[in-house]
Amino acid sequence: MQPRILHISLFTALIGFALMACISENGETKLELPPHFPAMNYPENNQFNQDRVDLGRKLFYDPILSRNNDISCASCHKQSLAFADTAAISPGTEGRMGTRNAPTLANVGYNPTVLFDGFLETLEKQILVPIQEHAEMDFNIVDVSKRMKADPAYVAMSKKAYDREPDAFVITRAISAFERTLISSHSKYDAFLQGKKRLSAAETRGKNLFFDRLHCSQCHGGFNFTDFSVRNNGLFPVYADSGRMRVTQLEIDRDMVKVPTLRNITLTAPYMHDGRFKTLRDVLNHYESGGEPHPNKSAVIQPFTLTEAEENDLISFLKTLTDKQFITDKRYSAPK
């Protein structure tokens, strides 16, 4: 299937526009999704429930998760930045530095795998990683639950949401429940797809470059502008971070990193898994060059040439993927 055909089949036939909301039908609470988004899969033991979301939201913003009570999930995933960060590498507890850039959490509930390795299969499993990681929160989830049990509010919320006192199950499920509500679907491009807004001439030229001439949608396609695959994009001949190979120990996975979403891309700089590129123009320059040679480099990474005007047009289109409502929605902000 050609990218242009894929683009049309995924988007242009879709109509209607809905706000993400919590509603009740037949006594059951559920998450209402935009009509041009697919259904979201929920683990059997963590179906959507507003009480679970409320608990997860409280935990997301609480430094109780870190050994020294000095950082929270929101320290590295800031709402004003589409739940990403301006730092190439976000500092963890005591200012310790890791190795990877903090990715956006926009639409993270749709990710079939999480982390740049593209290896863990659920958000529930991912929650464990930053809590125990030495360069991040450097703590133990059992000790987190002990802290929560000393707080009557957390005990009450846990029992209401999961019918049990705070423990590892509650912590991982609740934060995941909140993160699945982080739906970004109100960009100018979304409105364009609904027939509610028109793109400017520059944005239209950029869209045509993206989908037709450059075929960026081969990797950054679909409703979330990612195919969720792991690829090598030729950043280096030899990577300091071995990517997916770090967990699989397979040579075919050496220096392979998950393709990120491009939604809210103007808010999530710096770019790449190590945050090495400060601007979108830096990213374009890399791809124009065709990247560095590497045995696992994706075949779709090929050199091309753009004029300065064409680069400006492409960036203008990418700006239409910014969702200003998402970064100001109080449902996602720190609870009062």
What does this 3D model show about the protein?
The protein has two domains: 3-12 and 186-319, Cytochrome c-like domain (Cytochrome Bc1 Complex, Chain D, domain 2, Orthogonal Bundle), CATH 1.10.760.10; 21-183 and 326-332, Cytochrome c-like domain (Cytochrome Bc1 Complex, Chain D, domain 2), CATH 1.10.760.10. 33% of the residues lie in helices and 4% in strands. It has 13 helices and four strands. The strands form two sheets. A two-stranded antiparallel ribbon has the order 1-2. Strands 3-4 form a two-stranded antiparallel ribbon. A hairpin with a 2-residue loop joins strand 1 (21-25) and strand 2. The longest helix is centred in the middle third of the chain and has 13 residues, at 201-213. Residues 1-27 have low confidence and may be disordered.
